[in-house]
Write a structure and sequence with these properties.
3-stranded mixed beta sheet; two-stranded antiparallel sheet; 10 helices; 7 strands
Length: 251
């Protein structure tokens, strides 16, 4: 396999493949993912449903790349794949560029959540931000929306934009156990549910100003989908303690 990618979609598939290894039961696949992320300097980035995902240029830049082609990576030239990404997505984000710091913060949060210590040998990372044409959001990620059905469905978030960086900082602090029932979904569903959890806004977004600065520790908490639905079921959103009391009373 030596063919370079020809489209952004090719690269996004590779990014998804590399991320899947971080969730694998195979320790060799997890180690493969961790090594690529730890040692990478030039990254292709895609914003999936659950957050930003990353893959080094040399991995993302070849068609249908995967762990089975690991022996070829050392034979490849990052300069070639970097040139291809610049052709497809423009120049990479570098320190000082608008938006660079936010993406680099997402990368560090990603490393933290996957227990990776990124290499300190590089002066600075570079990022190509790729546009995912089709995105799907879970109910806790959209506050106000207009939808039209047809050949294409368009979703617009009109009033508030939920911060994925805040979500990831919340989960790094609290972990993935539900703040109400203390369930970890991986204990029930296994690998499928690893690191899956909703993040609840303790102060509903609809009741705060547009320029409100979220505190990921004080304002957010992880809750399972069932408890999240129950928190929002009444006309007035229940507090975590109120729902806990109901659950304990029922028990």
């Amino acid at each position: 396999m030596s063919d370079l990618i020809v489209s952004v979609e090719d690269a996004i598939r590779n990014i998804g493949t590399l991320f899947s290894y971080s969730q694998s039961d195979d320790p060799n696949e997890r180690a493969f993912h961790d090594k690529r992320i730890k040692n990478g300097k030039f990254f292709a980035v895609a914003n999936f449903q659950a957050g930003y995902r990353f893959a080094p240029s040399k991995f993302a830049g070849y068609v249908d790349n995967d762990v089975h082609h690991a022996d070829l990576l050392s034979q490849r030239d990052t300069r070639i794949t970097n040139s291809k990404f610049s052709e497809l997505a423009g120049e990479a984000l570098s320190p000082g560029d608008d938006g660079y710091q936010a993406i680099d913060d997402y990368f560090l949060d990603y490393c933290s959540l996957t227990n990776i210590e990124p290499s300190k040998h590089h002066r600075a990372r570079r990022y190509w931000l790729l546009q995912v044409e089709s995105t799907f959001s879970t109910p806790d990620e959209i506050v106000d929306e207009d939808c039209w059905e047809g050949g294409k469905t368009t979703i617009k978030v009109n009033r508030f934009e939920r911060s994925k960086a805040a979500r990831e900082k919340c989960l790094r602090h609290y972990g993935f156990d539900c703040s109400v029932c203390e369930l970890n979904l991986e204990d029930v569903y296994g690998l499928l549910a690893r690191n899956f959890i909703h993040v609840h806004h303790i102060v509903p977004l609809a009741s705060i100003g547009q320029n409100y600065q979220i505190d990921p520790i004080q304002d957010l908490c992880p809750v399972c989908p069932n408890c999240h639905a129950m928190l929002h079921r009444p006309n007035e959103v229940l507090s975590i303690d109120e729902l806990k009391a109901m659950l304990n009373h029922k028990a």
